[in-house]
Amino acid sequence: MSAFDNLLAFQRQTEALSSVAERLAWDQETVMPRGAVEQRSEEMAAMEAVLHERRTDPRIGEWLDHAEPEDDEDARIIELIARDYRRASRIPARLATELARQTSLAQGIWADARAKDAPEDFLPVLNDILMLKREEAAALADGGDLYDALLDDYEPGTTQAEIAALFDAMRPRLVALREDVLGAEFQPEPLDGHFSQETQLRLARTCATAFGYDWTRGRMDIAVHPFSSGRWQDSRITTRVVETDPFNCLYSTIHEVGHSSYEQGIDSDHAFTPLGRGVSMGAHESQSRIYENQLGRSRAFTGWLYQRMSDAFGGLSVPDADAFYATANRVTPGFIRTEADEVQYNLHIMLRFDLERDLIAGRLDVENLVEAWNARFLKDFGVAVDRPANGVLQDVHWAVGLFGYFPTYALGNVYAGCLHSALRAAVPDLDEALARGEADPAVEWLRENVQRHGGLYPPRDLIERASGTDISEKPILDYLEEKFSAIYKL
Amino acid sequence: MSAFDNLLAFQRQTEALSSVAERLAWDQETVMPRGAVEQRSEEMAAMEAVLHERRTDPRIGEWLDHAEPEDDEDARIIELIARDYRRASRIPARLATELARQTSLAQGIWADARAKDAPEDFLPVLNDILMLKREEAAALADGGDLYDALLDDYEPGTTQAEIAALFDAMRPRLVALREDVLGAEFQPEPLDGHFSQETQLRLARTCATAFGYDWTRGRMDIAVHPFSSGRWQDSRITTRVVETDPFNCLYSTIHEVGHSSYEQGIDSDHAFTPLGRGVSMGAHESQSRIYENQLGRSRAFTGWLYQRMSDAFGGLSVPDADAFYATANRVTPGFIRTEADEVQYNLHIMLRFDLERDLIAGRLDVENLVEAWNARFLKDFGVAVDRPANGVLQDVHWAVGLFGYFPTYALGNVYAGCLHSALRAAVPDLDEALARGEADPAVEWLRENVQRHGGLYPPRDLIERASGTDISEKPILDYLEEKFSAIYKL
Fold this sequence. Notes:
Protein name (chains A, B): Metal-dependent carboxypeptidase
Largest sheet of chain A: 3 strands, mixed
Enzyme class (chains A, B): hydrolase
Order of helices and strands of chain A: HHHHHHHHHEEEHHHHHHHHHHH
CATH topology of the largest domain in chain A: Neurolysin, domain 3
Number of strands of chain A: 3
Shape of chain A: globular
GO molecular function (chains A, B): carboxypeptidase activity
Helix content of chain A: 55-70%
Oligomer: homodimer
CATH class of the largest domain in chain A: Mainly Alpha
CATH architecture of the largest domain in chain A: Orthogonal Bundle
Strand content of chain A: under 5%
């Protein structure tokens, strides 16, 4: 066997094992008995130990030295394996273990602190994690920028300077739009009523099917925080149900279908290679966002959904499909990122991006974090945070060590904007299909131009190839201004 | 760290990983999307490769050479690790991985072939697996008997000669009882009616709770073939529902609760050591059988169940609890092992035991298996097999490589007979509790005398210590003759 074949065979098993670990995490969040926490942490730790040992196996280095690519695809595979090997090898096993242990502990402490609105219970642990992440970042950065080293794990090849420039360009138009919309005379009605779990889940399945979710290679379960999990032939979604707010369930479902369809849509040739996964968190989020927002919250699709929901729930509190469209896109002041509308969502991300850059750089101490969060929220949103659970304690990300992850959400929106422009140009009669509850033409275009490639192209290349233009904030901002000006009759 | 501590720490991780592999197998049988077969077989193979590498790690040999036990428990742990190490080291990694992959794939092929009544679709795959198993047996046997080498995996320390002698001793009395019962003037009525899935599952949960199943460390799902899965804090059961036959669901459930309670009942000190699992398949089956039959199908417990079922289904086709007891123990000609009554069950096992011994010894080819099965069935049961799904295709065992496993079912019955004798002597008023739907006194006795020990004693020792007598077929045969003579008014 050639060095490249050895590399590929070894990687194949590592990919399969990491897929097993992901399935185990799914199990924990959906079906695991509540008394199994201790056993499961032992099982997860054992899987992590095996994976870390494989990712830093010195044979990878030897094979990489001798691997000869036959084409661009081989070259990209080598590049991705080399990248993972380099990163994994820079992190001492002790640090990896300590991070795994601390973040698994911190998750429970965070949840309790949030429930009790007691940041003082969580901040010391967060500080420990921050110190470990800074140590990890220093090991990865090898003299370079700490935050960039972390960001690179989620959005390879992107720097905080690029993100900051992008966000600076977005902010003024988003802030202006937000002010116009919140100050508009016309305000959409909320959706009132009680919506049974059973019917919501049935509709969620209908929506997932409308967006091309392949049920033979997936399934849907309930989780506290919706997520998608798994690849290729086994990519599962989860959703949640709030009986006073059916949009929560339906749009969470469509969002996760976007993530899951990306994995289902990758060419099966790439399975169990480093090309067999979504290429970055930003690229992933571009799919979930375009499914959820540009398609799912479009006038055309909400028209179909209005009829389906009216039938299923025996009438709705809004009078017609136009009013329903406005309701599904309602912009209201709120503290919580995951409940934010398309206009305000990116402002939530910018707040976190700036704070976590300061934390990683050592410009902000954890002990001053609550104050910093609240001051920034007041400045950006004009409202004082009423309690920590609605402020710094709302997200799990930092508790589990995800620093550098937040900006990929906004990047996903920017990518989705670029893709949506190109999609609309390529499929001019898309709205006719969406109005019939059929997202197929859009899904096919995304599959062909984005999803099937998996990890073949770096994220920016992938989006630029698909959209035929350079990455820019203009399409998403134009889209938002046009859409919300119309809805709010500005 | 001492050699023994090293051994224990290493084993701890191996046990955790093997628990992960078991959870993955559970997933495959209960919730996995049907299109994920190929991916899953790759994942299972990767896990098997990791496990095999660990089980044959040369460091184990070194630690074993220097490990010094401080007490009998340490000595038993060393004995079990040494046994696994010796066995695993004899199997080439290629063979272990290939078996994992083939058997994971064969499961789906078997299920399709059974559904289509098409043995020709399955037999070629079965032949591949048989060849791999013979190769494995030869590697394990190291010059000894092939079948014994496989049997030893499921019932350590037992030989086919011992089993054959036991079965020879059982056969005449079983055959005579079967003939008397089938020819008796009195024949119990069948249970007629339609029994909704929802109500059956609710009753199944009630029964599981009555038998002490700990729901905080387990769950119940539906599977084609009911099974139990997992250990300690995460031991799950499965059941199935036939809407014309509620006994199928209820007694499958109680049976699996027996298996699962054994795992839940092992001292938590033994978790993640080789003592933290049921000691053999025969010992395991003794628990499931005694829960299902000696307790669950007793006059006392069926009296309680009659009332519960009458209430739940709004009346039953049988007039009273006595008639219901006979119905729940009805002996009728039938093709299917898993639906067989207590009298005929062991005859089904003997058929499989003889056929699989011939297959492994090379005295019978897979291409002649259908014919051999049908001829033997006609001889033993006096009825011609009507279709392959009722014959050779009915069991999944051979498809997943379980050769040498079947006899442990009958051994479990023999063990259950011994334990039941001792239990009745120790808890003379057991029937009073069972008549109230409370199995606690029996469960507590089994937990104290069998379950909590896990792997601490070899299987025969365990059963002999608990029952206070040598292993013998006499108690189970006496019990069967007494019970069925009374029911059938012989």
